[in-house]
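thought: fold this chain, then report.
action: predict
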Amino acid sequence: MTSRRLLYIAFWYPPSRASGVYRALATTRAFVEAGWEVTVVTTTERFLENEIGSLDRSLLSEIPAAARVERVPFSFDPDLREVGHFRGNFPVMWQAWRSLMGPIKDSLLAPITSRMPELEESYSSWIDPVVAAIAERGEKFDHVLATGNPFSSFEAARRIADELDIPYAVDFRDPWTIDVFTGNRARLPAGTELVEKRIVDGASSCIHVNDAIAEAYATKYPDAADKQHVVLNGFDQDSVHITPATYAGGPLRFGILGTVNDRWPLEPILQAWRVVRNELPVGSKLILGGHLGYFAKSAEPLERVLPGEADGFEFIGAVSKSEVAAFYASLDVVIVPVPGSPLVTSGKIYEAMAVGIPLVCVQAEGGDARRVSGDHPLAQMANPNVQSVANALRAAERARKEQGSDDIQFVRQAMRSFDRQVTMARMVQLIEESR
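observation:
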């Protein structure tokens, strides 16, 4: 039997530590394990190191050995000879004007344009080199799959698929033209929605991380409603393979793991911790593991808001993938901060659910992480305010003290349906059904 060949376009890929990297790795792994030959197209380490200032080379070992990785250079630095005087000399004003006029020009373009507008976003200059790199290879593929953001990956997939006369699919880690935090129309350059519609209309499948986003896209593009599918993020088994021990008395360890960002409801969590700390056994701690922001410049302002040891708080810095399971197993309660929106789930919620100990999900009512964690028997929901979080922490403390080893195993087993080996099988199925 001839091996099936997938071209997978994923701008953020190891050694990037962007939030979408783990889904991209899981996608690669799922197709390799299903017998596909996978070629991944991504950007270069030089860009990640020099322009983003953020990478984690330990993640390179997570790439399946059978996958081939093609790195196509990209830079944010345009050749100013190729842009207009206004854009070259006043880039901030130019970007603001383009965002303001985008929705207005979209509505005018739709009925009168005879030519589809080009995609304009920060990464659009990557499209041509990707298309050219694949053309130079002269290789045959059975399907193209692209993950976004950036959504330039989608346009590259569409163009390559057209050239090779093969189907393509797109995996929306976040919605493109819908603001993930408000559900409103995103403010984007003119023509973006027309480009998205062309991509959605031509795709074999449009894949989303939760039902709310899939439903929003089905509503936005009713002619393509049957193409909207859901593949949950899920958790990696190696992130939770260590079973926590039962509580044996003494100090309790509450923990948060993830890349801290200014969208997190971190302040009410920290204030609630100060409220309940004196009610807990002496020596109890709140431990934060992870990076401070996605970019090097993000760390300093975020670090300034963190409490110190006097508040029973400990920031341990980045936790490598190989250390994640040990981190979770050392805790008594997992706290998951999530921005509030029906469109926002957060991949970390699945890991937290799979550990087997009580978890506190801090998200505004209606948020998708709250809905997902409702399947967890020891989940405590909290609105992003001090009193609600403090009550949830107290309830989680009680639940942890009452847990026996059988209870921990029961929770872990109940969450197995969110294992990425299970969730990503749907991704493979969608692609195979469209061949």
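thought: worth noting. The radius of gyration is 23 Å.
final: tokens above.
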